[in-house]
Protein: pyruvate, phosphate dikinase
Organism: Ostreococcus tauri
Amino acid sequence: MRARAISTSASNARVGDGNFFSRSRDGRRAKTRARVGRGRGGRRIDFLERAPGMARRGRRRGRRARWPCAGASADGDGTSTAIFHFERGCAYGTKEMKDLLGSKGSGLAEMALLGLNVPAGFTISAACNERFAARGSTYVQSELWPDVLEAVSSLERTAKRTVFRSGCSLVGRAPLLLSVRSGAAASMPGMMDTVLNLGLSDACVAACVEAGFDERWVYDSYRRLLAMFGDVVEGIPKMDFEVALSQARSANEVRFDSELPAEALKKLCDEYKDIYVKHGKTFEQDPMNQLSKSILAVFSSWNNPRAVEYRDINRLSGLLGTAVNVQQMVFGNFNDNSGSGVCFSRNPADGTDKVYGEFLQKAQGEDVVSGVRTPMMISDLAGTQASAAEELNEVCKELEKDYKDMMDIEWTIEDGNLYILQCRVGKRTGTAAVRIATEMAAEGIITRDEALMQVNAKQIEQVLHPVFVIDETSAEYSGKIVAKGKPASPGAAVGAICFSAKEAKEMKAKGTPVILVREETCADDIGGMFAAEGILTARGGMTSHAAVVARGWGKPCVSGCGDIVFKNDREIRFGSSDKTFRSGNVISINGTTGEVLNASFPVAPSTIETFLPLKTFMQWVDQKRGIEIRANADTPEDADAAIRNGASGIGLVRTEHMFFSTTDRVHAIREFIMAQDETSSTIALEKLEKYHYEDFRGILKAAAGRKVTVRLIDPPLHEFLPSEKQLREGGAQEMSRYIGKSTHDIMEIAENMREHNPMLGLRGCRLGILRPSMSKMQVRAFAQAAIDLTSEGFPVTPSIMVPLVSTVDEFHNQRDLVWGVMKELAKENQQPPIRMEIGAMIETPRCALIAGDLARAGASFFSFGTNDLTQMTYGFSRDDSDAFIKPYIAKGLLRDDPFVTLDPVAVAELMDIAIHRARDIRNDIEVGVCGEHGGDPASLRTIDALDVDYASCSPSRVLVARLAAAQAACSRKEKVKTKPFAVTAA
Amino acid sequence: MRARAISTSASNARVGDGNFFSRSRDGRRAKTRARVGRGRGGRRIDFLERAPGMARRGRRRGRRARWPCAGASADGDGTSTAIFHFERGCAYGTKEMKDLLGSKGSGLAEMALLGLNVPAGFTISAACNERFAARGSTYVQSELWPDVLEAVSSLERTAKRTVFRSGCSLVGRAPLLLSVRSGAAASMPGMMDTVLNLGLSDACVAACVEAGFDERWVYDSYRRLLAMFGDVVEGIPKMDFEVALSQARSANEVRFDSELPAEALKKLCDEYKDIYVKHGKTFEQDPMNQLSKSILAVFSSWNNPRAVEYRDINRLSGLLGTAVNVQQMVFGNFNDNSGSGVCFSRNPADGTDKVYGEFLQKAQGEDVVSGVRTPMMISDLAGTQASAAEELNEVCKELEKDYKDMMDIEWTIEDGNLYILQCRVGKRTGTAAVRIATEMAAEGIITRDEALMQVNAKQIEQVLHPVFVIDETSAEYSGKIVAKGKPASPGAAVGAICFSAKEAKEMKAKGTPVILVREETCADDIGGMFAAEGILTARGGMTSHAAVVARGWGKPCVSGCGDIVFKNDREIRFGSSDKTFRSGNVISINGTTGEVLNASFPVAPSTIETFLPLKTFMQWVDQKRGIEIRANADTPEDADAAIRNGASGIGLVRTEHMFFSTTDRVHAIREFIMAQDETSSTIALEKLEKYHYEDFRGILKAAAGRKVTVRLIDPPLHEFLPSEKQLREGGAQEMSRYIGKSTHDIMEIAENMREHNPMLGLRGCRLGILRPSMSKMQVRAFAQAAIDLTSEGFPVTPSIMVPLVSTVDEFHNQRDLVWGVMKELAKENQQPPIRMEIGAMIETPRCALIAGDLARAGASFFSFGTNDLTQMTYGFSRDDSDAFIKPYIAKGLLRDDPFVTLDPVAVAELMDIAIHRARDIRNDIEVGVCGEHGGDPASLRTIDALDVDYASCSPSRVLVARLAAAQAACSRKEKVKTKPFAVTAA
């Protein structure tokens, strides 16, 4: 996004780009850098290396901007500014300056510039917090303090009120009271938040009363200051103040604080001061000391453990710190003609274009949020305060136009006058996001590209998956998180813990929803997994058995949750927590985020399949994106879902997953593996062929003529067997019953198959070459299904992909195998062979480098298996990498998990090399990406920048992937491709 | 090597290059291709697509070449020739035409061209064998036969004798008898070999006697034909003939066949014919039928199972088949003035420049080889046949000059005339090879470059290792081979089988040499391994524990011998053989070839350290080679050996190997791994630091100022623990005794460390980053050793290498770690830090691609870990790859094991990319290769072609590597490097 130019009063310089601050990639100290423009005379001006002048906007609300005496103070080291003033009509900042001014401060500046009625004030920048962190409180108390003092006097002049100083007369005017609020670039719970009514003191209160101000208002304001200052600055438990308040309500026999009479509030103030004493503190009576202490408290809170942890968890790095917003108080509790409220410019739940929010009369802002009284709906405001309500509507529209987004606004009405205290882009559900983006584009507020950029992956995903009814950003939600694993299969699920498949089936039969919790799952757990609402495993990644099966069913799953500690086989705990969870205890899991919650939150299914804005939105998406999106599907149901979600084909059928889905199939594949002679091998293969045929037929039919790419068997065969431990502990015996081989033989065969590094072992086409009967059977089943469907009149486009190729001869061998089977079938069916494309999967670095030779050897297409390619490029085992990738990210040694976000450096370079070499041989050779990266938005940006035709992802990620591909196309500087955009059937 | 130009009589075309035939890389049908030259008028002539004319040489022995009527016959399909004549002074072929004429045939043609006295004859080319294989005996009997008949008549004209036909008169001249001998391009035991005296029959014999020829000679020749033809053509057991012969000797009371009188021989002939009848055969009386049957027998023998197996084992692929040499018989058994012999132009055992060989008077060639009589030494020939002896000396010199090599010659004297029957390049010991090459160069017969190319890696290795006294190419040796594993540590060893370390130590104490045979070895086996003469393991590769330890000690070891089948823990068998080997049975192992032998061959140590020709030779080697050779050394003894062998530094110290060498060390490292708290971890590290310090000190001292590169700990820590099974079966209990942790704790810690794919797991710098205390200790120990030696006046050049880097930040982290320790030490030692270079090991494809960034990040040098790089580039686990690499090679899907021979395609390309990117940043950055490939000649050719500074290999391979590097430089077309050759201290 290009920011408009901003002129500075001091120099009339123009700044070309609003993106002033960038974070350094490695998480180290971010530099406050500014893009530079040219002054009028062509002189180069570094915007932020000088005190930035007051920014002006062309549009004003009829008022001339007045220049406060101290505009913005240059900091000691001259490299950045410390204090940024704002008042209605003018401000030393814009909404783009979030990094320096924080979200709140930049919003205030922006609104001031827009001419909205913002109480005047100033923002102490986040850079000061950084300096404080480096130099300690001396920085605030000596270096910064003169500037703060000057800023306050400037504010006094603007407000035409003064901070109360002893001996001051208040006749005719109220004292200048201040609000002090923190505000970083990203919202961050756990930090010091707000102190209101700062400036009140015993003397001031007395003077106010003497000057004739409403006693109730005065004491109400004072008791709020005492409680907040006590809590936030002095560290006195909030509860103590709340208990006293509650006692006061009882004593006065009232329900709400607002009904307490002045006398009671006055008494309460005294009690509050006693609470200070009880904790060995005294309330600070000097207003400027109150201010300095508050500033220090805000700055210090940046590094309190909760805030640090929050940033770690949310991977917020490179922030300077928090800014501090000091602002003239306006009073929603001033009289009956006053009130406070919050509102969204549109409905954040469903996106309807109507201001949505709540307010409380005669209350300060905190009351609305804290729920001390039930607020009224914003629609009722018109009844009580018609003009303010109308003004609020206008403000909403104006802010939407300015921010080009739906806004979340805090406001106060003081004696009939509307003040806007805060604005930010509003959070919304997926449904709302899609509707808002679509409608805003239709209204002309934003372009279609902007609409596409406004909806994020999570939101589009939310439209489709069951979700918690509770707001996932609320403290109530986040407070219940006990562990985090991999978001293996999206959606929310609640149920009683079960530790075995058997138990899960039993409890489900009794009508109890369950969450199956396992170390890892295997084929034997299928029944229990199906019975469960959701699956939680301690080990395994995004492609573990649990994850694959769960995604196939669209069942929520959190996998690889390393925090789970099995105390024994009936009890677990999470991480370092002592709390024991037993079988039957209810938990919630969020498969979209990977969170595990000690809670029983209600879950609602999302059923917006005929949601018109979504349809429109996805049309725009498809018109924009440069790559096709196909889906990985292992069952006809998967394929069906994928096509419904707009996949333009099935990019990957993982044949081996087909063996997992029922116990019979598991037995059949194990029978094949254990077969020591031709006959028993053939019998097992015949069984498997039947299963395969049905599945392939279903998938081809669901794809309705779109391309379906089947990958021949890929994993090492021993993956289909129980683990060594399981075999020892009865697994072999059980297998023996089904397979008719002795336990000893089974153990021996399994032992002989064991590998040191199965990921680099006998798998992929190596298996297809050395045990060709399995691959031949797969080709037969697939081709026969295609032949039969064709003769029944259904269109099919089948293709076969050879996995884990690293030499040209391997590809030759497998291509010959496929051709052999095709010829055989043609003979059997007495008709010419059907068209079957044969491609290679690029999963090893070597394969990437020889892609040209493979193209020359006749590969019809290529598909990058980016999971394996990442494993081999980094030398990271996906199954084991948790042990180092997590700590690497924590230490700043890795920015992203390369298994989640495609490495844009080396893996992408190998892909790029392969693509170039392949296209040098045959320019129109089809190139795709399959694997988990295909559904990840950040990875899709990388993929989009390559000359790739399609990405294939899991069916549930198809919408996300389509969107991400379109967003990548929006943010792409120029299209690398020489081909026209691929347009797909939506 | 450039071949001289050959003019063809038919066209006078010139062929520019003698390398007419090339084998197709994939082992499929080799095409008979010929390089083309230009005719006199500039017309393009495909040499072999026409019948090649008779080749002429400038130098003749005074005789004019006569053109036989049928020169060489064009084959039916016109693409190649079938029959190639030769006679003294002219021939239709040269020594370069081995592929078509076989080794024997091309040698005969060459000798004929040189004017040597070769009995006339013709060669039926190997291409005919190929056609026979495709079309069956019809090919020989109808298509080829007219040409053979014509060739025989031509030979009759040349020889001025005729094949005996009934009714023929032999008065005044002997009949034309023929020898028929097979001869492929490579020597190949197991194929049909020789039929002599072909043409004799009852009628012919009678006619000869009638014509007055010596009866003894006649019947001796006939009985030989009967026996050979019976054996070779009719498949009658040789033994039957030998029994009859032996009975004849007894009956006649003579010791040797040559003493049998004519009468006895005549009787023997009748008995032989009876043997035919006994086997349901009749001796073929028609000479031309004898010939056609013999040709068919030779052609068929190409594909008999023994021959096929031999080619498989020796990886001979792409051969057309065998040629058949039909030649006029000359008779060493003609009279007392006759004899047969074999000789080498120089001594093949020590290389002395003196003709060396044996001969028998009055004998045919087969007698010399078969040992029916003890032959005389060639030095005695001068006494009996002075002129023939002198002529033989001349022939030897002439052939040496022509072939530019030491020759192996078969000859016969018929009635005083010397005939040369066969010549080939002579096999020789390593010692002889070095001496011959050096002396031939000194004599001016060959250039220094040619001398370097004449000695191969095996030979130079042989100079240094203990070897079997028996000839390893003999049938006696190869017949004893029972299994083959990896040649893990070179040298020969003989001893009694022991299955446990304990047993090995006990038996050794009793004075019995033992071979320790284990599934695989671990640290607990150290004592037994040390006691053993050699080590044989069923599992593990070239870097397995057994291999590493054995190489460290210079003890022969064969590892990963998959043929071993453990019947129980006291008995094994090999492969499919039934024979059981028990503890105490004596076997031999050949660590140079990987062979296991059911034999007790004598072994001799090689002690030629002061062998002057070797010194000279290695000087030439060092002057020629373009890359430095350093050594991988893990102990001071290794380092010492390496420097003695001429290593120019220590390119890789694998710190982890230092933990294997004694039980105390194993306990200490396990203590560290099991340590759960800082204190116990520190105690364990202090122990390890002491061991490290001593080793590092010793290595640095041995290197005497040359660069020593230490690699920080690389393998996953669980590699130092017993296997899970071992732990379960008492290993944990034993560990518990030493480490003072409960068995349960040990099992649990080990369990938690287990990884799915340890090769891609928590190892290398990942370990150094996440458990830095170990790496810090290693740096401390190394740096302190360097500091101490410096202050004692010893020069040192220490450097540290970070393993398994895949991101720049990983390198940063480890570089900071090293710097931190260096600063600490400098402070402790109160002196400025010593110079310590820090480099990165390039082992992952990603690291190769970011080499430029690493160079920018300050890496002082790079070293390619080609083992890991190969694993990750191919996606082949070295530990598991036997399961597919072996069958791949057998199927022709891979030419070489990429862990033995560096992949010149993808792995080399990644290396090339890395080198270019690194040198783009800093042109003089040092780049090396460490790992097993550094000692492999084929790999060194690939390495030499890259812009690499050095290769590092095991100390025992240093000589080989130096030679291979020089040979690579010789065969390199042009030097890629821009730098001058590195000259190293030899």
Remarks:
- Chain B touches chain A through 50 residues (CB under 8 Å).
- The CA atoms of residues 935 and 961 of chain B lie 5 Å apart.
- The two ends of chain B are 29 Å apart (CA to CA).
- Chain B has a mean pLDDT of 85.
